[in-house]
Amino acid sequence: MKKAVFYLFFVILCVFFCSAEETIRIENEELMKLSDLNGIWENDSRFLVFNTDTISFVLKPFYRFYYDETDTLRAGLTTGETGETVLRVKYSNQKKTLPHPICVINDKLFLDFFCYGSAFLESPETDELHKTSPLYGYWRAGGNVNAIELAVPQNQREVTCYYFTDSHVYFLRYWRADIPYDKIAATVTDGDFSFDIDKLLMIGDTVYTCVTGRGTKVRYFEKYPYIISGDTITIKKQEDDVVFPLYVSHNGSLLSLSEPYLTKSKVADLPAEITAHNSLRHFPIKPWFKLWDLDFHWEEIEYLRNGRRK
C-alpha cells in the first residue's frame, strides 16, 4: 500500500514539473513557452528572434541598408476561445499581455488566416461524391492584427469569413461589437442555398458579429464564382478577377489567402549577419524621378537679383 502511494505521489510530481517546464508566467498570466516558434524569422522590414519567453526585434530601416537591434519583449503562447494559436506579448505601457492570433504553415507565419468550420456547430453532412472543391465549407477568420511590432497592436474593425461551395464563395462580413461572446448560430440564404455559421467570433480578446441586435439572419454578404489553379485562387468579381495566393495546412484545418507575414530565416548567426551587413558600403539608390537637363537663363536670374536693374 505504501509503495502504491509513493508511486502515485512520484507520478504526480513528474506531471507537475513537466508541465511547469512548458509554461511561463507573465504578469500573473500562465502561458506556453515559445518553443514551437524558436529561431529567427524575417520579412522585408524586420527580423524577429523567438526565444523561450522573449521576442527580439531587429529592424531593417533605410531601404534595408542598415540592421538596427532595437528591443526585446516578453511573450508566450496560448489557445484562443475558438481554438486558434495566440501569441501574447507584454508591452511596458500595458497592464496585461496583448494578443496576436497566428498561424504557421510550412515555416511561414501568417497573421491573416482562417480556421475551418464553426467553433461550436457540427459540420453538416454533405455527400462527399458531390464535393469537388478542397475548400468546401465555412472558413472563419482567425486573425485580426496586421503586424507584430514594438508598438501596441491595433485590432481590425472588420474581418471577412468565407463559405465555399463547389463553384461559388460567399463573403461574410463581421464587425467589432462591444458585447460578450456567446455560441449562437446565424443563417445565410440566397434563395437557392442556405447554411449556418457562427453569429459571433472571438478573435484574441475582441468579439465580432455578422448580425445586428438579436437577429440570426445574415443580410450582408456577397457571392462570386471562383477557380482554384495550383497555388492560387481566382475570385471572379463583377468588375474584375482577383487572384489570391492559396496556402492550406497539411491537415486542411488552416487556410490563408495572403502572403506570409514572416518566414523562417536562413540566417544562422544573426549577430554576425548584423555586423557583416552594417559594415557594407552601399551605392546610392537610383533616383525615383529622372534628372532633367534644365537650361537656366542666368541673365534673367541676375536681372531679378539686382532689383530689375541692368
Mind sketching the topology for me?
Elements: H1 2-22, E1 23-26, E2 29-32, E3 39-42, E4 46-50, E5 54-59, H2 61-64, E6 68-79, E7 85-89, E8 98-104, E9 108-110, E10 114-116, E11 137-141, E12 158-164, E13 168-176, E14 185-189, E15 194-198, E16 200-203, E17 206-209, E18 221-229, E19 232-236, E20 241-245, E21 247-248, E22 254-256, E23 262-264, H3 270-278, H4 298-305
Antiparallel strand pairs: 1-2, 3-4, 3-23, 4-5, 5-6, 6-7, 7-8, 8-9, 9-23, 10-11, 10-22, 11-12, 12-13, 13-17, 13-18, 14-15, 16-17, 18-19, 19-20, 21-22
In short, what is this structure?
This protein has 310 residues and is mainly β. The protein contains four helices and 23 strands.
What can you tell me about this protein's structure?
By secondary structure, the protein is mainly β. The protein has one domain (27-305). The protein is 14% helix and 38% strand. The strands form four sheets. Strands 10, 11, 12, 13, 16, 17, 18, 19, 20, 21 and 22 form an eleven-stranded antiparallel sheet that branches. An eight-stranded antiparallel barrel has the order 3-4-5-6-7-8-9-23. Strand 16 (200-203) and strand 17 (206-209) form a beta hairpin. The longest helix is centred in the first third of the chain and has 21 residues, at 2-22. It starts with a helix and ends in a 5-residue tail after the last helix. The relative contact order is 0.13. Residues 1-20 have low confidence and may be disordered.
